[in-house]
Structure prediction request, 469 residues.
Amino acid sequence: MKEFTAVDTLIIIGIVVAYILFTTWMTWRLRSKSSGDFMEGSRAMPAFIVGVMLMSEYIGAKSTIGTAQAAFEDGFAASWSVIGAAIGFPLFGLLLVKRIYNTGKITISGAIAEKYGNSTKNIISIIMIYALLLVNVGNYVSGAAAISTVLKVNLPVAAFITAIVSTFYFAFGGMKGMAWVTLLHSGMKYFGILVILGVALHMSGGISPMVQQMPDFYWTWDGHIGASTIVAWLIGTIGSIFCTQFVIQAISSTKDAASAKRATWVAFLFCLPIAIAIAIIGVAAKFLHPNINSLYALPVFLQDMSPWLAGLVTTSLVASIFVSVSTVALAIASLIVKDFYVPMRNPTPEREFKMTRWLSLAIGFLPLIFVLFVPEVLKLSFFTRAIRLSISVVAMMAFYLPFFKSARGANAGLIGACVVTSIWYLLGDPFGINNMYIALITPAVIMALDHLIPQKRPVTKTNMQKSGA
Prediction:
């Protein structure tokens, strides 16, 4: 593995900086100029653009770096972490898109509040904000790994660079500006991953030598991951798609429910091939560079390219980082503003828009505090999906099981699932039970138990007359 010279590094930095400057200018030109533009793109986004945005939400820096890291350690079966998204988007389109779109809400908490009320809405918002902040911690770690590999800076500095640029994108662009910049970012990301795949296969001599010389588990369907974990991944990824704030926000930006459904199929078509490519890259990194830190399984191939090609591929990884961080941060800002700031302060549209931008700055830099505490990106990724899965369980019960109509049960289920799942994750998944299963079962069990407990009937004049009072 060769080292870049000072001149090579300057070429790479120059390409990355030129791209950042161009997309910054593009973001400024397309920036949101009202709260409607910022939050939902004024419901005018084409289905193809929204589909690309959905794909980018689930195949960003965290998924690319994290899946390659898992494939390096546990085999090609790591691809299931992204294949789950490919399966989940059409299911989301079939089961929930129309129902959520027709509520007219741009937050999952707002949609569920139609059934359970404001207390449930606030609890969902808090849990979702908690989960999404952790998502961006993983995004920053993944992005910093890619940037630090080439620029030869440490992880905190690389993460700080990520924070500055991505915060500008979403704080000024909003949904309207980010939609078009995301299209460019996603094209660059796809290009970069395919180039890395080509370099990896060229250096390894193709897949056959790897199959022949590596332990068998690297090419089995379950690898060292195991069927139980893979099923948990699928459940968690599909479930989290059903309630992730940016996904809801993105489908709400289309002109109608039919367009929103088409967008989910666009996301499917983009997710599937990239899942396979990333896993092969991770296995090839193990084959060629068995002693490196697994976090660098994907960016390690940059060192084996010409500086010009490495510059383009580095730019593609940087683009992936920025879009991942920006979409998640935009979702957090939307939840805080729509579910807390607006109901409490009832601001004018202009003041709401201004406050959204100020909050966006804080949201963009907050995850930096935790960057050094996250060694395994994919495990954190799936824990955050587990937290969001519990919200999806409540959402499905709200839309499809009308007899579960107790706000008390929904609130207890949400809080209980969040607390129990977090403890289970921190304990390292006791008894070999993945925290995803805990997140799936806990809210349903609590809501079912609540259903068996009689609700107190409110004391009204009619009830008092019936009781003879």
